[in-house]
Amino acid sequence: MPHTAANASCDPHGIPAGKQLQLPSSLRPRLFVVVDTEEEFDWTAPFARCNTSVGAMKHVDRAQSIFDRFLIRPTYVIDYPVASQPEGYSFLQEIAADGRCDIGAHLHPWVNPPFTEPMTRRNSFTSNLGRELQRAKLKVLTEMITEHFGRRPRVFKAGRYGFDATTLAVLEELQFEVDASICPRMDFSSEEGPDFSDCDALPFWISDDVLEIPCTVDYTGWLGPLRQSAHRMASLSGLSRLKAVGVLAKSGMANKVMLSPEGNTYEEMRRLASALVGRGCRAMTLSFHSPSVAPGHTPYVRTTADLETFLGDLERFFEFFTSELDGIPASPLDFRASCIHGVFDR
């Protein structure tokens, strides 16, 4: 396997540094779509094991129909409530059987048996559970997905981005090939979660067998290399009360953007993708939560008007990416295979 690139730029907070990919400079930009496919719950309330409703899954075609038009094969990383209930998995079975999507695993520890850990915010991060409990939960989830889709999941994404070296060891043991858990430029340490603030959005080999395809989060703005430090300073408690982060964004100096239609406008996503391609990035991930396909289940889609904007921004971004950036859709597993063999289509 070609691991000849420089070290990946990850801060060593229990996160393996790995080896960065060396992609051809002529490679057309690749876009992965990863959907956090999960139960509905109140994002402002404490975590509860009784929150297992998956009613929004019957509307997943609202997004899938857009993916189909752009020949995008998304990866639905599904958690235990989705994988274990017909109301959750049945809508994906036909899509997967037609080869129109891939199915991965998404671990929400608080609703994934076995339930031996206390129900705390700290324990909502998979990486805090210890190796044996992480393995036990992921094994149960993997077996449930295999039972209902006829094949083992090979892509993993930790719920709440709860990933570290221990989680990686479990993934290797259970023969996962791609991880999509790292959320660059984000720091969850105030909640006893991981700190990814010094990670970037470039894919890299996080181990000999596991390819890391992070979420795509980074800074835009004319402050250039000062963007990150300015944004960090503006986020400090004293300045945050003065809405300093918003001032930076509106002035065009620095804005932290996630490639997601949840909480980010089409224009922000467009600027981020353009900036990343200009910086040499040739692979990026658009992500969102499955309950957003129906109003009232996430903070990002509360009304029918929100849903129209959400779906419209998806479509506009895919059109922009494929036409103006000359990008193409890709799947994490196919991309990994291309990286191993050094052969990329188109």
Short characterization:
With 346 residues, the chain is an alpha/beta fold. It is built from eleven helices and twelve strands.
What would your notes on this structure say?
The N terminus is likely disordered. β4, α4 and β5 form a beta-alpha-beta unit. It is built from 11 helices and 12 strands. With 346 residues, the protein is of the alpha/beta class. The longest helix has 20 residues. The chain has 2 domains: 272 residues, Glycoside hydrolase/deacetylase (TIM Barrel), CATH 3.20.20; 38 residues, no CATH class.
List keywords for this structure.
ten-stranded mixed beta sheet, 2 domains, alpha/beta, TIM Barrel, 346 residues, 11 helices, two-stranded antiparallel sheet, disordered N terminus
The helix-and-strand class reads alpha/beta
Major sheet characteristics: 10 strands, mixed
Using only CA atoms, what is the Rg? 19 Å
Number of domains: 2
Please give the share of residues in helix: 25-40%
Shape annotation: globular
User: What is the helix/strand order?
Assistant: EEHEHHEHEHEEEEHHHEHEHEH
Question: Which quaternary structure do these chains form?
Answer: single chain
Structure summary, number of beta strands: 12
List low-pLDDT spans: 1-12
Overall mean pLDDT score?
Answer: 91
| Percent in strands | 5-15%
CATH topology of the largest domain: TIM Barrel
Name given to the CATH architecture of the largest domain: Alpha-Beta Barrel
CATH domain class of the largest domain: Alpha Beta
Question: How far is the first residue's CA from the last residue's CA?
Answer: 22 Å
Number of helices: 11
Q: Write the CATH homologous superfamily of the largest domain.
A: Glycoside hydrolase/deacetylase
